[in-house]
Amino acid sequence: MEITKLTDAERFDPAKMTKNLLVASDHMFCDLYCLEPGQAQKVHAHDGSDKVYVVLDGTATLTVGEEVQAVGPGHAVVARAGVAHGIRNDSAGRVTALVVMAPKP
Amino acid sequence: MEITKLTDAERFDPAKMTKNLLVASDHMFCDLYCLEPGQAQKVHAHDGSDKVYVVLDGTATLTVGEEVQAVGPGHAVVARAGVAHGIRNDSAGRVTALVVMAPKP
Description:
2 copies of one chain form a homodimer.
Chain A: E1 3-5, E2 18-24, E3 29-35, E4 50-57, E5 60-64, E6 67-71, E7 75-79, E8 85-88, E9 95-102
Antiparallel strand pairs in A: 2-3, 3-9, 4-7, 4-9, 5-6, 5-8
């Protein structure tokens, strides 16, 4: 059985946020994003793929379209195909988020 | 912004396990499964869709193909298209799991 322990994938880099693969399949992938304070994923869009962020630890600042919002642990946010989105860490603590994307771009 | 608090979707039913929608998009959906002790999802397969289980609380018993394994919180398990899979709660406590499926069957 393919089992991944989420915390085993945790990796923080003082230079930039990290994306750490948890699961890749033909139809989707799941990453663990790790952001030190001040780190960010540039706002971008995917034409044909939806993305879901599930904040696991810390408070992330999510951008979806024109909206920017602080999102705490245990919340899921969807960015549908074609809609600009990004995550950043404006907080004083670390942020980890489970990120699902389908289909694989 | 479409934000769902996972615990807001939590719903336990003494009669059977529940599947509670968190996010639905064109390319995937995310459910929160809630299982009381003894409850189960029948082992089944989807021809064209992959499923990922992320156990959030409690210890679930996952079946993927011929394998059956106890899986604790913070672990992700993938069941690829065509492979039989299911979740049950053989423990004495409640189980919640985030379940992602792509594409929507």
